[in-house]
Structures are given as structure tokens and as C-alpha cells.
UniProtKB/TrEMBL annotation:
Keywords: Isomerase, Magnesium, Metal-binding, Phosphoprotein. It is an enzyme of class 5 (isomerase). Gene3D superfamilies: Alpha-D-Glucose-1,6-Bisphosphate, subunit A, domain 3. It comes from the Bacteria. Belongs to the phosphohexose mutase family. One of its GO terms (molecular function) is phosphopentomutase activity. Its EC number is 5.4.2.2. It comes from Urbifossiella limnaea. Residues 136-217, 253-351, 369-499 form the Alpha-D-phosphohexomutase alpha/beta/alpha domain. Its cofactor is Mg(2+). GO terms for biological process: carbohydrate metabolic process; purine ribonucleoside salvage. This is Phosphoglucomutase. Pfam families: PGM_PMM_I (PF02878), PGM_PMM_II (PF02879), PGM_PMM_III (PF02880).
Amino acid sequence: MDLPASARLGFASVDADSALKDKALVNLITWLTHRDFSGYLPQLQWLVESAKWSVLVDSFYQVMPFGTGGRRGSVGIGPNRMNLWTLGASVQGHCEYLKQRFPGVGPLQVVLAFDVRQFEDKRGVYNRDLPNPVLHLSSREFCQYAAGVYAANGIVAHILPPDSPRYTPTPELSFSIRYLRAHGGLNMTASHNPPDDNGSKFYDERGAQPVPPEDQLMSEFVGRVTNIKHLPWADAVRTGKVKFLEDAPHRAYIELCRRQSLVPPPKRDEMRVVFTPLHGCGWFCAGETLEAQGFAPIQVPEQQTPDGQFPNVTKTPNPEIPECMDRAEAKAKEKNADLVLATDPDADRIGGMASTSPAGGGTFRAITGNEIAALLTHFKLAQLSRSGSLPANPIVVTTEVTTGQITRIGRHFGAQVVADLLVGFKYHADVLWQLESTGRYGDVTGTPDDFVIGTEESHGILATAGIRDKDSACAVLLMAEAALVQKRAGRTLVDYLDDLNRQFGYFRNEVLNIVMTGLEGKQNMAKMLDTLRASPPREIGGLAVTGFEDLRDENGRMGLFKGDTDKAARNFLIFRMAGQGGLAAKVSLRPSGTEPKAKAYLEVSTDPRRAGTTDAEWAALTAAADVQVQKLATAFLATALATVGQTPTPGADKLSR
């Protein structure tokens, strides 16, 4: 029996919509028969002969969606995997989009960046004894292929030289696009995803990822691609359309980060900071910035080398997960350090652990993304206010799912607060662009000079309008300086957080991940959101739902859709609850834009501590908030899974603490 016939019979055994299986078969036959895909034939033949039907259906039932400014997912074979074909189609579409956006402009220019990833098939999907074009494929090679597509389309691509030991982190890419006055950019990274993943993120001329409707227009150009123009790397270089990045943008970027400093630098040995890039490219931004400002970061040698397999990282190279900082914590105890700082592989997010002792060392406490956001918002506003440098119209920007403590902090300092953004720093960048071009964003008025800080719950910070994406370098500098100020007062960052809770109210924020993998998972996720949208629960965890908001409601605050990408981003439900004893609660639900799961964001908060409240009374109130957030998690998970006929597995409602 021939391969297509075998696949047709095999696909019948897969539990999936017949239309999707038919589409998978059509795409598979194309890859089996078209000469452009001949290099993949040995692996495809093996997958068919080995009856890997679920893998094949999932790899071929669609072209990987061009989502929030690009594509991200598992590297592999097929149109629903990251490979040179899916990247090439994206880049070709970007070329066509740039020519439409900048008619008659020449030469068009883009900046390319890449992280440390290299595909080694850790999941064991393919036969290692057969030729495999995607095996060992690195982010650098992806980017060099992209440069060949840009060059073939007459567009100049700025990229690091092949022998460069450096990498261009995400925030430096954003800065470099602006510095070089390029018309766009491409970042090859899967951020903190597992090692077998990779992705492409596209940037506009402002150094930001495009927002609706521009991302919709780009997606449409990508969707219309039928032919990829491409030059081999050596030929692309010979055309002169590939320009190798010099040190000037990098030096200017580091200097910009250093200018965000708010306090005098530490004296020798006054402050001990352990820093780890977790095998990513964070040293080239965050590490260098700390070093330049006199913090002499203590390295974790076994995690210092860029390595896309992240061999010496526990669990995952994601600073949202405290376990990944275990080696750094051990080093901090050994060196009697005050602070641990980490960056994710593309160096746009940070993580931190603070010593609970003013003398350093001893016990360390992980600081959550929401705590980092609140702490740095207060620290920067307080330092600017103290020095008389606070802008006339200070602006603080955050998202709908980031701790509400930030709004209270911002208003305490008289700041205008944007606190209802969708998830993704492209929306923070859009606020800056609206201020830059119109002088206002909604009810907020001002200019980018009034911008103080932008934050998100997932460990992202933006501290300067000179960059238009989250930036670990400025963030680690502010974290180190906040710890330094506390140390000089005989205190710790943990003490600082306790102060914020008393002054602005205790906020317990958690994220509950509802994992739904594969084609069936995608269908279940859509059904879950739609069912809860149509019939929202009246109570969650014993609390009455007093407010429900569906951001897909075109009669709501977000208005009409700006395209399919906007509609997808607004697949977002918010449930608000008022509890007893001064507690308030909120649950927000959305599908992840980069991983096969839905995220439920849980928040339970108290009022600020009132005068006369005893320590025991305050402790009881915060403990009640902790108990309530677990009740929300348990109840909401059961309610959500019931919409697709499932029940939670034991421990699925486990929270961070």
C-alpha cells in the first residue's frame, strides 16, 4: 500500500474532526510528493510506516497559526511545526507587508535577533538513524535563512556576524530597531518554552510587536504566500543585503539601561548579587548592566555558557519557576549574598530571590512576578518623588491580570494608571505610541517622557520609553538598587514587600494552568471558553459573582473587533466577586498565546491595614485571603473542566504556596 493510502486508513483511527483529518491528509500528500520537501521524505515515510497517526495529524492538519506577531511551537516536520518552510513563509509575508507599509521606500531594513536554542528532538518524535533536516537546527541558522529571504526580496537584514560570541536579547533588538531606524525586525526565540520549541516574533519600526489591525494585515500577507523567495546564506551576504551588526547599538543600549539608575552605586562589597542567565543570553544585557553599575554580579559558572539545551537548569529556564534558581540560591548562600537575579533565555523576563536577613545569606524567599511589578513600581515612583524628578503627569501601565496593588500604588503618588491592557507588552508599547502620536491614551494624557514604568504579572518590566518591549536589563538594575536601598537601612526586600502589603492592601495573586494539548485540547479549550461565556457561573469558591465581563463583547469597553487577531486576543473572561470580611476577588481566564493551555488568573485582596489593627488581626486577614484563593482555584478548575466533561486530576489545583 502506498504512503497516502496508508495515511488515509491510519488517520481514520484518530479521534478528531473529519474535516481536519482530511486537511491533514492533503497537506501530508503535498509534503510527500513536492520536490521542495524531498529532504523530509525519509522521516515522513518512517512516521507513516510506524503508524504515528496522532503525530502526523497534529503536524499537518493546519498551517501553524500566525498568532501574536509570529509563530511559536514545536520544531518539527509539517506545516504545523516550526521549520524553515513555516519560517520562510512568515518572512516572505513580512517582506510583502513591509513593501505595502512603506511604499517607494528603499532600501527597507530589518534587524534580526536569535536566542540560544538548537533542536535536538528531546521528545523523541523522529528516527535518529534517518536524515532529518530539522535536527540540530539552531535559532542562529533559522535567522540566517530568514536573512536569505529578506535579501532575495531586496531588503537589508542586520544580523550578528556568524562568528560572534554574543547574542542579541529581545530588549536589545527593540532598541536596535529604533537606533538603526530600521523598518522592522525578527526575533527567533521561544522564550522560556521547552528546548524543542522555537518561534518567530516580528517587530515594527517602533521596536514593538504590531497590534491590531496591523498584525491582522501582516497575518493576511503571510496567509497569501505561495512562493518563498530565498538566497542561500553565502549568496545573500555577497549581495550586500546582509549587514553585520557592529558594537555601537549594543553600547548605546547598555548606556540607556545605565541611565535608568536611581541611586548611587554600591561601594565595594556593600551589596552582593548573584546573577544567572540560565544558559540564555541575559549576560549580554542584564549581566553587563549590573557590572557596569558597580554591582559586580556573582556568576553561577555551570549556567553561564549559552546553551539551548539548558543542561544545568532544574525544571525549565523560566524565572517564573523558583526551582530554576536553585543553583543560584546555593551560590548566594555560599557567598552570603543579598539577592539572586535570573533572566530567561531571550532575556526579556527576570526572576528574583531575596535574603530574609539584612546581613545576607541564610534563607531566601522567591519574589513573584506580581511582587516584582508592585515593588519596582513603588520603588521608582518613590525615588523619583524623593529626588524631585517625578514627571508632571506620571504614567504607570499594567495589564488586566497584573496585581491590583499597582493601581493603588500609582494613585498614591498621583500617577495616571492604565491597568486594563490585554496580555502582551505590545499593548504597553501601543500606549507609548498613542501618547507619542496623539498625546493621550483613553483618559490618560501626556507624552512618553511622562512614562514611569510598565509591568506584567509574568515577570516583565519596562522602565524606559527608549525600548518598546519588556527588558530584563533595566529590571535587574532596579531590583538590585531597591535591595541596596533597603540594605543601607538595615532591611531587606522582604521587609519592603511587607510594608507595601500593609500600606496598600495584601494581594494574593496566582495563576492556574489548565493544560490541554494537541488537536483535541485545542477544541476543548475553545468549547470551555465558549460555554463559560454563554453561561457564566453565579458563584466561585463560595463567593457570589457580582460582575462578569466578556472582552469579546463588541458592545463592551473594547468596541468592535479590529480583525481576527484582535478577536483571538480578546478571548478573555473576567469574573469579579466581593467576599466577606473586607476581601475582594477576581478570576480572569484566557488561552495562552504561546503554549497549549488556558490560564486562570486568581486574585484575592484586602483593604490596607487600618490604624489600630493588631498584628494578630492582620495575620488572620491575610491568612483568610490565602485560604480563599485556594478555594477559588479548586472550584474554578472543577467548573471549567466540567464544561468539556472532565474532572481535575489530583493536585491540579495546587498553587505556588
